[in-house]
Design a protein that fits this description.
Helix content is 45%, strand content 13%. The protein is α+β, with helices and mostly antiparallel strands and 181 residues long. It has two domains: 1-110, no CATH class; 122-180, no CATH class. The two termini are 39 Å apart.
């Protein structure tokens, strides 16, 4: 993020929850949603809406996250069964290694100017992918491996761009311009 700020590049990326709320009318946050749990950076713990502490339990390297849990105290809580049903672990919260960056990006997206930029991006950037998926019937890649996928995506992007140029200039003007280039 520091490199982006240094180069004066504004990045607008919604979190998964923000992106899905954009399409959904349901914006209500449930009582025991992760966003209702407060993280204390100094103590490295989460506090639940009922004031109970979820302490650090370990690292999950496959998901690149820290795990926090309430343990047996959750079983005694009056909201057991609603917040969590795990008698052994209690409520668990996942905190990604880059959670600070994720939170910063989410708060940046909430600004009205950022939402305006994102709406414009959806109009401009989503069109090619929608066209490739629907009109070119390429909802999935046929080749396997990163090199194959890159090659296939390059062909699809080239096809999209050529059709776009033909629609903008027409075939004869495009050929004339390509000859002079």
């Amino acid at each position: 993020m520091a490199e982006l700020v240094e180069n004066e590049i504004e990045v607008v990326v919604p979190s998964f929850k923000q992106a899905t709320q954009y399409y959904s009318d349901e914006c209500t946050v449930k009582k025991f949603d992760k966003s209702r749990f407060i993280y204390d950076k100094d103590k490295d713990v989460y506090t639940c809406p009922e004031g109970k502490t979820l302490s650090y339990q370990g690292i999950n390297n496959t998901k690149k996250c820290y795990l926090y849990g309430g343990g047996s105290q959750c079983c005694k809580c009056r909201h057991f069964g609603v917040c969590t049903k795990s008698e052994r672990r209690g409520r668990r919260i996942v905190r990604y290694f880059n959670q600070g960056f994720r939170d910063e990006m989410a708060s940046h997206y909430d600004k009205p100017a950022s939402k305006k930029i994102y709406r414009k991006r959806k109009q401009n950037a989503e069109l090619p992918f929608g066209h490739i998926k629907r009109n070119l019937n390429s909802g999935h890649f046929l080749l396997r491996g990163l090199d194959g996928v890159r090659a296939e995506m390059s062909l699809l992007a080239t096809c999209f761009n050529m059709v776009r140029l033909i629609n903008i200039f027409g075939v004869s003007v495009l050929i004339a311009r390509l000859k002079t280039a």
